[in-house]
Amino acid sequence: xxxxxxxxxxxxxxxxxxxxxxxxxxxxxxxxxxxxxxxxxxxxxxxxxxxxxxxxxxxxxxxxxxxxxxxxxxxxxxxxxxxxxxxxxxxxxxxxxxxxxxxxxxxxxxxxxxxxxxxxxxxxxxxxxxxxxxxxxxxxxxxxxxxxxxxxxxxxxxxxxxxxxxxxxxxxxxxxxxxxxxxxxxxxxxxxxxxxxxxxxxxxxxxxxxxxxxxx
Length: 216
What we know:
There is one protein chain. By secondary structure, the protein is mostly helical. Helices cover 35% and strands 6% of the residues. The chain starts with a helix and ends in an 8-residue tail after the last helix. The relative contact order is 0.17.
């Protein structure tokens, strides 16, 4: 028991040094619980006007998509676009706890459906995120572990983006409420940069410039 308590104390000290909220410890078992993420100020997205100096549409589209990558590659988005059947969570993108799986429709397995815990809105007292549409992106839309170029090619491919044409894709990125959750993820979670309106404007500018992707 002394060894187990020492290990828990060492883990708590490590998280304190790195600036992460200290671990809660179950006093009965001396078992560390996962830390809750710290809330931090939102980063920004450069506005569309910042890319006006790119005379060539191809170069402008690439530069705009790189800016969009701040959102697309953020943990708030990647956690819901996992490469496997288990979602991830927190900024460290650790496997979801408790153990849940995608299920046949992206809403979880029978008896462990997403909506069992995730309701129509965030429940901040328990640090449980929520949205009326809460579910995993289909596996064909997974981009965890992919490069920004691969993500770019994927999201503009109707076969891998839910059958959306470019106008529908821009609307999805700029208006969809589940996408929008990333900007209001609740207490203890780092929001994605900027605002959804700014992100939607960037998506439209990218599409208008030809929707070109960054080189590998």
